[in-house]
Write a structure and sequence with these properties.
Blueprint: E1 13-21, H1 32-37, E2 42-44, E3 47-49, E4 54-59, E5 62-69, H2 72-84, E6 87-91
Antiparallel strand pairs: 1-5, 1-6, 2-3, 4-5
Length: 93
């Protein structure tokens, strides 16, 4: 597991941002993952359709955002959010 405050540069790929800070505190507000993923999706017939590369998830009762993108700008933006809020980031191999 790596965290957002590691020395790794932001890059495209697969990672999950968890709703916990690196000190173990729960991140607020409770709907942060939907707010973060929302701008990458679109609204169709009053329903939010999240982008397949940026999905809000529930991981062991905690909200999170799963990112699987080849777009480095998206990855950079989401990792910057995680770093600014001291959130745990889990990279997939």
């Amino acid at each position: 597991m790596s965290t957002a405050d590691s020395d790794e540069p932001p890059s495209a790929g697969c990672f999950t941002i968890l709703g916990l800070t690196n000190s173990g505190r729960k991140f607020r507000p409770s709907d942060w993952s939907c707010r973060l993923a929302g701008p990458y999706g679109k609204v169709e017939q009053n329903v939010i359709r999240y982008h397949p590369d940026v999905q809000p998830i529930n991981c062991n009762g905690q909200p999170g955002v799963r990112v699987s993108t080849t777009n480095p700008a998206i990855a950079t933006h989401l990792e910057a959010f995680a770093a600014a809020n001291d959130l745990v980031v889990v990279r997939e191999a």
